[in-house]
Design goal:
The structure is a single chain. By secondary structure, this protein is an all-alpha fold. The chain is about 75% helix and about 0% strand. Helix 3 packs antiparallel against helix 4, helix 4 packs antiparallel against helix 5 and helix 6 packs parallel to helix 9. The protein starts with a helix and ends with a helix.
Length: about 230
């Protein structure tokens, strides 16, 4: 059983690395177009909140660095309103929340309770992180296009959750089973949505968020004019 749990943990770490690298294609497009277009920032901000949930310490440090690069690139290329929204998310989720949790746990709870509360928080963050790609579902349904719902990110969330669910079962850790099991369900839902709407016709890139006063559309038009 120990050998199986070790193998499952190793596979989980490998899938975690794949998850970490899965947004590279998306950000290559963002950098190339110099615009975040219709991509959502929440999945990358939430991934920064707790990278390497069960990964090795060295991998976790590398994960923090990579996720910081993703978030910084998003902030650089986002239109003003989206940039402000993303900055607020980063401040609340990646700065305010961890500091608040640390202060509350450190100064109001004894050691045994700290471990228990941290376990619940870890499970909650894992579920939120797995659900984060679903923020694009509203746009997918409205436009009937999966253009801005990256398949690779959803697929890696799914495989990562399944791997850690198996690990949790083998080591009999209910918190891992619960959080990763929920992630597996959410990942399945994402893939189902993708499968349904990937068959629909992809709309024109001119369908952009009006709340940004056509900022991204102007960026893309200017880029196209320069290429002519």
């Amino acid at each position: 059983m120990e050998d199986l749990s070790f193998i499952a943990g190793l596979i989980g770490n490998i899938f975690s690395i794949f998850l970490l690298l899965s947004p590279i294609r998306t950000f290559s497009q963002i950098v190339k177009h110099k615009s975040t277009e219709e991509f959502e920032s929440f999945p990358y901000v939430s991934m920064l909140l707790k990278p390497g949930l069960y990964m090795l310490a060295i991998i976790s440090g590398f994960a923090v660095l990579i996720q910081l690069v993703y978030v910084v690139l998003f902030l650089i290329h986002a239109p003003p309103k989206i940039r402000a929204k993303t900055a607020i998310l980063v401040g609340v989720l990646n700065v305010g929340f961890p500091i608040s949790v640390f202060l509350i746990i450190q100064y109001t709870m004894h050691e045994d309770l700290q471990i228990e509360v941290l376990g619940f928080i870890r499970a909650g963050i894992s579920i939120v992180m797995s659900a984060s790609p679903l923020v694009a579902v509203k746009r997918v349904v409205m436009t009937k296009s999966v253009e801005y719902m990256p398949f690779l990110l959803s697929f890696c969330f799914f495989t990562n959750s399944v791997a850690w669910t198996c690990y949790g079962i083998l080591v009999e850790d209910l918190s891992i089973v619960a959080s990763s099991g929920a992630g597996s369900v959410l990942g399945t839902l994402q893939l189902v949505v993708y499968a349904i709407y990937s068959k629909c016709e992809t709309p024109s890139n001119s369908i952009l968020d009006e709340s940004d006063d056509g900022w991204q559309h102007k960026r893309l038009l200017n880029e196209d004019n320069q290429d002519v």
